[in-house]
Amino acid sequence: MLMVELKENERIDDLEIRGFRIIQNPLYFCFGCDAVLLSDFARPRKRDRVMDLCTGTGIVPILMAAKEKGSSFEAIEINTYMAEMAGRSAALNEISDTLHVTEGDIRNIKELYKNDSFDYLTVNPPYIKENSGLLNPDDAINVARHEMMLSLKDVIKAASYLLKSRGGFAMVHKPFRLPEIIYIMKQHKIEPKRLRMVQPKAGAEPTMMLIEGVKDGGEFMKVEPPLIMYEEDGSYTEEVLRIYGKM
After folding, report:
1. Residues contacting residue 72 through CB under 8 Å, at least 6 positions apart
2. How confident is the model at residue 143 (pLDDT cuts 50, 70, 90)?
3. 147 pLDDT more than 50
4. Whole-angstrom Cα distance, residue 34 to residue 206?
5. Could you report the per-residue pLDDT of 52-82, keeping only the tens digit for each?
6. Which of 65, 158, 189, 242 is the most exposed place for a label (fewest CB within 10 A)?
7. Separation between Cα atoms, residue 193 and residue 22, nearest integer Å
8. Counting beta carbons within 10 angstroms of the beta carbon of residue 103, is it exposed (0 to 12), middle (13 to 18) or buried (19 or more)?
């Protein structure tokens, strides 16, 4: 088992899939169920070159590599420490040859990558508009949750630049921003093709949504049955257990 350097307050968590693990620091930002659901929802082909924007800990491309969803992976993260930690997680899983993490600002994406470079793209972006909602005292958490350093438009514009024609785009976000998301996707030639709401329990209002689009795709969108997270007794549903590898 490969060992890597752990820094102060870091820990190694078992992802419970093919022995894959991840380094996290609870004083910064640990991944949540949104990243796990996104990695399951995304549908790249096994041969695809995949990019993950706003990668944070690197959880989405690491899970996708574990599930063999793609042949090679690139990830970009603006926070120096988080990018370096994600790189160490790639090394920990011995996938540094197929997952490369870059520190960078996606607003400057043209300086980092050529256009039309990727077959599929995933992103778990900040959900909350700048100057909206309560701020966490930790700046790293604020940047992950609030559009302090980039907007939704910045994210989708970068995705469109990076994707090949007919390339796929998968994102997790909040349902209340769906009209804005569809509008900006269409502005940047990414046609919404698949939508799934995530509900805490059956009949409850959705708290998350998963959306997939295709660059230069035709106008047709499939709305899938909602993903229900919990049974009435508070236990995970069978589908969520499957996604988490518990079945």
Report:
1. 49, 50, 98, 99
2. very low
3. no
4. 13
5. 999 999 999 999 999 999 999 999 999 999 9
6. 242
7. 31
8. middle
What's the sign of the alpha-carbon dihedral 53, 59, 65, 67? negative
Query: Is the pLDDT reported for residue 136 higher than 50?
Result: no
Residue listed under structure tokens 């994210």: 155
Widest CA span in the chain: 51
Q: What is the pTM of this model?
A: 0.91
For 125, the token pair is 């972006």
Residue listed under structure tokens 């989708």: 156
Q: Does residue 132 surpass a pLDDT of 90? A: no
Asked if 43 contacts 71 with a C-beta cutoff of 8 angstroms, the reply is no
pLDDT, tens digit (0-9, with 9 covering 90-100), for 181-200: 999 999 999 999 999 999 99
Q: Which amino acid is at 164?
A: K
Can you tell me which residue has the tokens 């690139």?
Answer: 74
- Alpha carbon distances (Å) from 193 to 69, 185, 211, 224: 19, 11, 8, 11
Question: Is the pLDDT score of 6 beyond 90?
Answer: yes
With tokens 């997270």, the residue in question is: 229
